[in-house]
Amino acid sequence: MLSEAHLTEGMRSVFVELLVHGPLSRAEAARRLDLSPSAVTKLTKPLLQDGYLLQQPVGDRNAMGRPSQPLAVDPARAALIGVKLTEDELFAVRTDLRAEIQRELRRPLISHDVDDVVACVGEAVRDLTGSGKPPAAVGISLAGTASGGDPVVPTSPFLGWRNVPLGGLVAAATGIPAVVVENDVRALTAAQQWFGAGVGHSSFALVTVGAGLGCGLVIGDRLVRGAGRGTGLVGHMSIHDSGPLCEMGHRGCARAYVSSAAIRRAVATTLDRPDLTFEACLALAAEGQPAARRILEEAGEALGQVVATVANITGVQLVILSGEAVAMYDVCAGAFDAALAAHTHWTSTPIDVVVKPFTFSEWARGAAVIALQHRILGR
Amino acid sequence: MLSEAHLTEGMRSVFVELLVHGPLSRAEAARRLDLSPSAVTKLTKPLLQDGYLLQQPVGDRNAMGRPSQPLAVDPARAALIGVKLTEDELFAVRTDLRAEIQRELRRPLISHDVDDVVACVGEAVRDLTGSGKPPAAVGISLAGTASGGDPVVPTSPFLGWRNVPLGGLVAAATGIPAVVVENDVRALTAAQQWFGAGVGHSSFALVTVGAGLGCGLVIGDRLVRGAGRGTGLVGHMSIHDSGPLCEMGHRGCARAYVSSAAIRRAVATTLDRPDLTFEACLALAAEGQPAARRILEEAGEALGQVVATVANITGVQLVILSGEAVAMYDVCAGAFDAALAAHTHWTSTPIDVVVKPFTFSEWARGAAVIALQHRILGR
DNA sequence: CCGGGTTTGTTGATGATGTCAAGGAATGAA
DNA sequence: TTCATTCCTTGACATCATCAACAAACCCGG
């Protein structure tokens, strides 16, 4: 699917524009892409014939002239599968071309043995495919130094892998040739870029709060992948030099304040209630329990400082907050905003912060978007 | 000059490739640009006729086959003028197309009045032009939120300007239509991108040490300009929360440790020798004076942490150090390297740090390169 | 010294891709 | 009904890069 029709460069750009920016008339697409209307007519013709695009019913008419005929990508024309690997579980989703989730599943990882993981991923792909048509591409995301295009995972700390050709192995196990592997935060960033709060912004950052801290960047409409080095390593950013030590020997890393584990541990030990869950800690702080409240304020300050630093260096105007533990923001928005303002340069316009409610399948959805982008853009 | 000949997109890319990567044979240029050899022949023909390119004498022959005929940009085909504005002085250079400085001058700024500054810039441009041909473009760089393409300076704290249409005023005063205004650190970054240590790297960062700290970014072969907000605001990055206050109310900002003024002040007050210059402080530290040595070690640590943070967020592999006070690096390389290593993630490859000896005219040279890039690339 | 091998550079035919000019289509407004 | 407006389509045309073929200039081995 999706590339057997020999997509040319112009067709790709029109297709992406329609995919990302919803139904558009040919004239509107021409304006956006800086093309002539006739070019759009010619470029969309084969895409319509092949069923990638659909004529939309004409919408509201309050303008002059001939009504526009909106075009839209047929989201059901192809399917994607995205898989997120964690230390002990696998999440997988099947989505349509607009990355809307159709089915999802989660499954425990029995071991970190490469063959076991590949078998588990293959089984998930089979189950999600069912009797339907096979997906156009499979994306796999995981923490570590994986980087799009390269099907080899250079290092995965939590799985203990080095130079594992994961993409090729899954392709062989499933018979689906297009398997792409990518860092999990970058995958989430890609999903926001095309189908989330990043739409319409040529540059933005995504900061994730969860087991750790992460940061993805889009600059000039391109996902920043880094050259050899990973990107978005904000977890060890220094916040207070009087804080606790982290495993790298720093004092007061951001992750010592703002990860879900750090918040839970701090509240649980301070209140001597080792059974407290992370959510319970947030609830305590929301109710006004002083220690919990203070710990979350400190977390909010740390997160605000991280976001400000990212924005100060890269110049992004929009920062999206996401991740499993992003609910912490609601409890400490005041402290966060104050820290963000304090660390933001006064000559700059304020930063737009968008908080994205998070479900765990978002990780897998991000992997599906990476697969989609790779399939369409070839990178 | 330089664009009257109606440069097409293909010609531009060949021209830039030859300008930046020195003399290249047609075949080599074709390989680098992913073009066919015949395309390069056709694209270079009009450039050769118009004198923008020169046939180089054939070099060493140790390969098989027909000897290649290197092509190079004629650096004398056009001239650029770059101007750097500071609070009380103006530096200006006239360069050739490869940004080699031909003449330079410095001049005091009598006032911060816009007309006075424009007159002073105009006079400098006239003096540097002399009886020669007028420059193809003029670039002006200054600290603040100026951003390429836009000839208006939104804010300049040290000049007290807001929304000054500097580019247009200088264009009117000099009769040279192409006047480009840009942030000074970005201009320096552009110079490194095309004619410095950044050549051959698609992504790198430049960190400047001087009156303050600055940071410029090139990601994916493009100079990062930021969207509305400035980039590279690393001066207020938090290093120690027990340090001195800065004017924004932070404790232990990077600029409190690593700017030339901060280092000088720290050494001078500690040793109770208010007359000490910055250079003298470096000399004392190099000789082993304990207090000066310690102060410079702390500066090196802070700078190392700044560089590590920039690289961790953006994923650049190369960081160039520059600026008026970059000589401090030689005195504290050990502390810098240790801090850099400590704050760099272990899963990443080490960062290449290149120290660029700095003269003040480099600022103005950067402005010339901005003018050149704008003239050629149209951005 | 002379012909294969090799790489470079040039030329003309070809094809892909976009613009332009012209005009038809579908609406609101007068 | 007629006009203005906007959208969409079509065919002529221009641009630009590739391809195939070939000429040029060198090495090398006999």
TrEMBL record, chains A, B:
Pfam families: ROK (PF00480). This is ROK family transcriptional regulator. InterPro entries: ATPase_NBD (IPR043129), ROK (IPR000600), ROK_cs (IPR049874), WH-like_DNA-bd_sf (IPR036388), WH_DNA-bd_sf (IPR036390). Belongs to the ROK (NagC/XylR) family. It comes from Micromonospora carbonacea. PROSITE patterns: ROK (PS01125). Gene3D superfamilies: 3.30.420.40, Winged helix-like DNA-binding domain superfamily/Winged helix DNA-binding domain.
